[in-house]
Amino acid sequence: MPRECRSIDECIDTLYNLINSSRIGVLRNICDRYELHRVLATARASVNLYIASLLYSKVYLCLDNLKEYTRRRNAAKRIVGIAKKHILEELIKKSTMCSDVLSFLDSYTRSIVDALRKSGLPYKLVIFTAVTTSRAFVGEASTGIYNVFEHGIALHPIYGVPYIPGSAIKGSLRSFVEAKGLPKECTIESLSDISDLFGSTRKVGDIIVFDAYPVRVASSGSLSSLLEPDVTTPIYADGTSSPKIEEHRAEPVPVIYPVIARGVVFRIIIALHRDISDECRYTLFNWIKSILSYGIGGKSRLGYGLLQVWDEL
What we know:
This protein is α+β, with helices and mostly antiparallel strands. It folds into two domains: 8-94, no CATH class; 99-221 and 258-312, no CATH class. The protein has helices at residues 8-17, 24-28, 33-45, 49-66, 73-94, 99-119, 144-149, 166-180, 194-198, 278-294; strands spanning 123-132, 207-209, 213-217, 227-232, 255-260, 264-273, 307-312. Strands 1, 2, 3, 6 and 7 form a five-stranded antiparallel beta sheet that branches. The longest helix is centred in the first third of the chain and has 22 residues, at 73-94.
């Protein structure tokens, strides 16, 4: 059994040493060892979590493919699992180095508010900050994180930090309104049904929800991390769709992945058409606060994605 690899670099080299020498020439065209080390170095140098996750995913997917070229499958599978753990650790550490980006996003979102107020557009703004009081899981399958951990997190492709898409907040509010109905304060001639408020394929709605960006981390520790490690341990998952459960074959299989940490402060900007009354705007704002307190994103029934509104600009 090969010794425990203490880094991703060691996992790459250890796995290559398990591969039959006759296959090395073929693998060089697929996953060259030295190219993997270069990609890994680039991932470590990047301060953008989105770009780093894509580079880490390339390394991981190559390692995952390489294990098929060795007869010692169990040892190779174990090495790939250790590499995944090291990738998670490096991503979490990298998420503590985003203070400059958060300062920029704080100024950037304030400039958006100033520009909207000066634009003369027919909208009234609702601006507030909300802090995660639990771990949050706003998933997206198009990021490198999903390729590695099979659980995605929405990472902004430019700013490289986790964020809450405006569609997630707007979709939750729409579901809430569909369940409760339009508040009586909002039932006016220009707002006769839900599609007038949220829009449809034929009409622009009277509410616009912007993407919510993190602006700081309210952490008392020395390291302010945007991400935290999490784990799910299914017992009966065997990689097949068979409903048959064989108790003697059941075993826990830890699945690790990153989530948004507690204490991350997001700035949320919502624009409501000026024809909407102040009473309606106040009611919708209270409903949004309730929705955030119930949880946004995935696994909210398990206590994930809880946010507490802090202040309104």
